[in-house]
Write a structure and sequence with these properties.
Blueprint: H1 2-7, E1 13-17, H2 21-27, H3 32-52, E2 57-64, H4 72-90, H5 93-98, E3 100-105, H6 113-125, E4 132-140, H7 142-158, H8 169-173, E5 186-189, E6 208-211, H9 221-232
Parallel strand pairs: 1-2, 1-5, 2-4, 3-4, 5-6
Length: 240
Amino acid sequence: MLKEVLEGEVPRHVAIIMDGNRRFAQEFGLTTTEGHSKGKDKLEEMMQWCLDLDIKILTVYAFSTENLTRDIEEVDYLMNMFELNFYKLGDDKRLHDNGIRVTVLGQKELLPEKVQKAITYAEEKTANYQNYFYNIALAYGSRQEIVQAIRVIAQKVKDGEMKVEDIDETTFSNHLYTAPFPDPDLILRTSGEERISNFLLWQIAYSELYFTDVYWPGFRKVDFLRAIRSYQLRQRRFGK
């Protein structure tokens, strides 16, 4: 299957809703925190799989604004894990060897200061890289992103920096967190759920969607190759 995939057109930008850590843990008799830990390990594998296929942009949904309302012990564990792993990312040899830039998308001000500092470390250490892009949606909600963009544009109109007639799709896209990046070609969601859950609602207007029953920590490279192969067999018309 790898040979078939490499012979076809590989998506430039893949976005993933990593769902199922807690259900995976429950199914295999693990604690919730162990499920999240295994999900983190799977994400490190995914980064390598994207390098293997020369996928230029990987965007992952790591933590939504709604997730902040979860049990405090679970949220605290995740915040500690994020802090540790952003520092690790900043020093990750793979990122520096392959020129991978890390960007966090979301309301970073909602996160603990220690996590914000770790994010800054990873982003600054990789800021000059342009070969690959690794985007992590953290404290992210697409509706909130859209509202924030509207507020900024409205303020610019109010201040005379922009005219109402200047507002178009491109203008709006340029005010989103994802402004530097092309829209995703493929959206992949694990765990069997078939919904978008407030993720990149504007950006996925013409993305291909792929859903799999596999929980995120149990997601294998062959499952990823099947998703890419499914994408390759589709005919993208972009509404035409």
